Amino acid sequence: MNPHEERGELSGYHWLIPLFSMTGVTLLLLAGAFRNSVLDPFSQNYIEDFAHQRNFETFVEQGLLVDNGHNGVKADWDAFYRYTRSAFKLGQQVAAFEQASAAGALQGVTLKTLPGTWQPLVKKRLLSEQDGQLVLNGEAYHQRMLKTTFGRHFLMAANNTHRLINQAGRISADEFYFRETNVFSVTRVLPRGAVYDRHNQLIVGWDKGRRERSGLHEGVFHVVGLPYRSGIEQKMEKALAPKPHRGLHDLAGLRGRDRRGDDLQLTVDSELSAKLYDMFDFEKKGRLKGAVVLMDIESGHLLASVSSNAPHGETVRGNYDALVRDRKHKPLLNRAWDELHFPGSTYKTVVAAAMLEQEALTQPFKRVQEKRTYLKIRNNRNKVRKKPIDMRTAFAVSSNTYFAEKGVLLGHHTADMAGRLGFNSACDLTLGVKDAKPWITATSSAYRGQQQVRFDKRGDHRLVAQFSLGQNQIKSHPLHMATLIATVANDGVFVDPRLIKGRRRGTLVTETHNPAAFSQLQYGETRRVLDSTTARYLRQACRGTMNMERGTGFYGPQIYRGTVDGQPIYSSAKRGSKAAEFVLIPSAGKTGTAQHGQKGKPPHSWFIGYAPADNPKVAVAVVVEYAGYGSLYALPIGMEALAGGLNSLNQEPHSLAGETEQVAAESSPDF
Amino acid sequence: MNRLEQALAYVSQRKSLWFKTLLTGIALYLLWQIALFTLLVLSAENRPFLLRAVLQTLEIILVLILVKRIVRAGPTAPEIFERRYLAATWVLFGLWLCVMVPMGFEIRDPYLYGTANFDPYQHLVIPMITGFRGYLFAVWLMCGIATLVLYGVKKRWADVDEVLLPLVCHLIFTGILILVRLGPDRTKTAMIGWNQAVFFLIGAVAFGIIISPAVRERLMNFADRYPYILLIITIALIGGTFFFGTALSGGRKLWYRVGPLTIQPIEISKILFVYVVAAFLEKKAYTFQKSRRLSSLISLGVMCLSLFLVLLLQKDLGPIMVLVIVCLWMFVSVSGRIDLLATALLAIGTVIGLAFWFKQPSMVYHRIMDFVDPLQYSSQMTYALWTQASGDLWGTALGMSRAYKVPVIESDYIFTAILAEKGWIGAAVVLTVFWAFSIRGIQLARFLVKGHSRDATFMMGVVMVLFVQQVVIVAGNLNMLPLSGLTLPFVSAGGSSLVVNLGVLALMLGLVARHTRPAQITETGQVKSIPMPIAAANPTRVEPEFEPSVRDDEMVLGGRAFRAGSAVKPGGHA
């Protein structure tokens, strides 16, 4: 029987199965290739590891490659070994050994009696014993140096010196590096946009195919952040990222189409931030943790947002893991708005505002005798004053007893006021900014603890009294406190805080100068949260803190105005310590000393305030963790910040590179 | 009359000076933009990119014409068509090679240009070549000669199909083009390209030998009689690498070294094994279709597993993947047993899952993890992905990418290089060519099924081997499947691979020619086959010593394959 004749016949259409499946699979592959090449899903992960490139730059900078006399370079091996003796650990040890043996310090020492510090040389077999003398094997050292990456690269450069000269006749380490080394780098590491501060000083730029971070000092680190990870770099990724696809050029596949990402102008003042960052070094206590937020009252621009313990941007590369794991200092934690603290007495601003609104209930302007009722609450060390005081005085001297009693009287009214003033809701720093991801701060909370508070219940009154002093269930962060005091200063109108001031188009990759000016972004949204009258009385109270004889901030530093070249210059100094030509500019605010219940540690130190007191321009909030009295630790930083902020508002911006050449720089209209 | 028409009428009737000025202004602005764009395109720095775009477009057109020919043949006679498109492919290759490549190098590496140093490769000295241009020109000429040889022998001994050869030549040329200029060190990869060209010539000769009826018939008859000897040869070839093999890369002994050459036995074994399986399936087709007996299944399983086990011991997973897919495909297309297919797939899935879970062999685990998270696990894949991304739509022009940074770019990752340098468009052309090749192969298999179902199954198996291999390696490159070490047929560097694949092509064409007879076209355009012995009808054919296994009265030409104008030459030897 022939099986071929007996077998069943499949339908003729079954031949379509291979045709269709092959077509389908091929289409899938085409789609996959399209994804990988055009859509480019891994573009965010391009390495920027140019450490090796630095080797070649070092050769040129350190003069290891010298002019050979006839339009070329040659390798200077002596210089190379000399350099390795200063730059590498082993080399340094070798140099030290040579010095010591030349000085005769090692006379009569054998390998066995050699001190332990020289053991690395023995282990690497660089030392040997000949006739009772220790001899350094220079050749072995040279071989070892040549085996390092640095040495290998130098060998490569030395053997190819003719290729180090580019067409313009100059030594060009970059081109050589890209052509010759085996370190992978992609043709498409495209430039990101730069970030400038409010005075057009460069914070982060782009240089030689990598992020240039020399301007990213500790004071602005948390604002600007790292690409894809934090800060502006993350939130404004879409704006800063390079833009590879543009119209006709792209269709034709031409070069020169790749465009830099957009440049951003921040509201922060880089110099001032650096100065404020240094203010957290205290003479007696050393470096303390904390944060400052400085705000322009009219526009909501943050002039500075400094969190102590931030790293410098240049040290982050290759060090990131260590920073993440540093639980002690938490260098990557932005204390300005990602960490919550008890606001302490600064919270009395809220209670005072509530009192002013419930005038009939609390009678803020009537002088009353402080009562003992709630004196025994925790955290209260005040004694009862003999003279009766009103709200403004109580605010200035920060009377706990007074505000504890009034807080209990007010009951849930304080909670309502806290809600209106931004407690229990987070703030979005990039609300309404084009191309921005939301930048949500931590949510400051009031009356939101585990324990349910019954305002009218007698048994809970001690708790409510404690809340009125900004303790227990009340938590906030400097940014929120800054917006709060700015609201008071701005006649009761809340302004959304803003970090981005301007934006402009990036140039083509091949161009070095960007002639465009920054087009200015809109200010934040405003909304009235306090009555104008209430705000006015609150401002009076705040003014008392700094200017009444008994006020908590009276003996702290004050703001003085001097004149240099007809320009007003503000500075902070102790009251009465300045010469007569300096004019005292009254400031206002509230200090706070927030106890946290951790034993054996000093309380957090707070200051919120604004200046000038008559015509508020800038507002500030400072917290210094585990420091002590607010007037001793937070107040000096706050005053320095206010003075700096007033200067910063007056300061003219630096001219941008290339702007002078372009007479009429047009701003791009679409932002 | 609607609003729009009213507005248009209003506009066209206005004859005021302002309006004319406005229109003129707009026109001038558009002209200005066009002029700007033209200038930009013609500027010196854009020249290579422009040329690249032109050449890629020509390539697309060429391939589309070939695809069209597969779907429906035009009025052009097959031999004219084949000649014309072989020449066109070769000329286009010449433009790429002799114009585009030096341009790219001039940009990328102006210092090295023109001073190739072949000293380290004394075993294949090219005495006449003085510079890089000369070298490229020599490669081009050599490819031309090889193409001529291919065309000549095919015309003489198996004049059956007019698109397979241009398609394959296109693939080979693409491969050589990429290989010629891949390296960071030009000398080294220039030698890879040169070797490839030399093996193309050798492969053309091998093609001629295998396609000649004397050899072809002897081979097929031997295979007919002793299929299990083939199986033994297959396993012995692979198993021999344990004792006589050489490890070229990755520490696995997968190659034989014969003098200066290295041969990968799996390339040959794959085809032999597919033949054995095809023969077995056809012999037992009835059993598989109609009965539930397990004995045949078991012998099939043992046959497959014996090879797979050896390959597994070699840790050569790529061919296993390809062969499993192809064997399953053949089995189902012969037996129609979907239930068994499902069972087999389940079993395979379980095996892979267990291997992954227990990390045994560890290679499975590593390959899968490389696939799942390439950026974390595999630097090679990472580089490959970056390189692919640099390609974009049109590719960096030839010589401008950094594809050479990817390890084994010349064989496993050659598709990455294509994607980088010729862009998605170039890659799409290559994929389309493979697709067209496979479709044509299936058409031929369908044609064969009327004559001899064993040969048809074998043909389908061979086509599937090439197609699946291409899919697996391309998908691996694109991180759509775990990557396994396979060559991209006809494209990757590798002498044995190229020669064997050309031999496979010869076998495919030979199989078709074996069952084809010259035809006659009547005046109404109807074709009749001539009921005569093959040898008498076709004077160019050598009388086979053994009688062909197909009886004459079985011969009916397949409808579709025939209509495509491929299998039979109209107006043949009457």
TrEMBL record, chain A:
TM spans (from-to): 12-34
Keyword Kinase included in the entry's annotation: no
UniProt KW keywords: Membrane, Transmembrane, Transmembrane helix
Domain of life: Bacteria
Domain Penicillin-binding protein transpeptidase: 290-637
One GO CC annotation: plasma membrane
Pfam families in UniProt: Transpeptidase (PF00905)
InterPro entries noted in UniProt: Beta-lactam/transpept, Beta-lactam/transpept-like, PCN-bd_Tpept
Gene3D superfamilies: DD-peptidase/beta-lactamase superfamily (3.40.710.10)
A molecular-function term among this protein's GO annotations: penicillin binding
GO biological process, one term: cell wall organization
Keyword Protein biosynthesis on entry: no
Entry protein name: Penicillin-binding protein transpeptidase domain-containing protein
UniProtKB/TrEMBL annotation, chain B:
Gene Ontology terms: biological process: cell division; regulation of cell shape
Cellular-component GO terms for this entry: cell division site; plasma membrane
Localization terms from the record: Membrane
Pfam family of the protein (one): FTSW_RODA_SPOVE
This protein's record includes keyword Cell inner membrane: no
Keyword Mitochondrion found: no
Annotated source species: Acanthopleuribacter pedis
Protein name per UniProt: FtsW/RodA/SpoVE family cell cycle protein
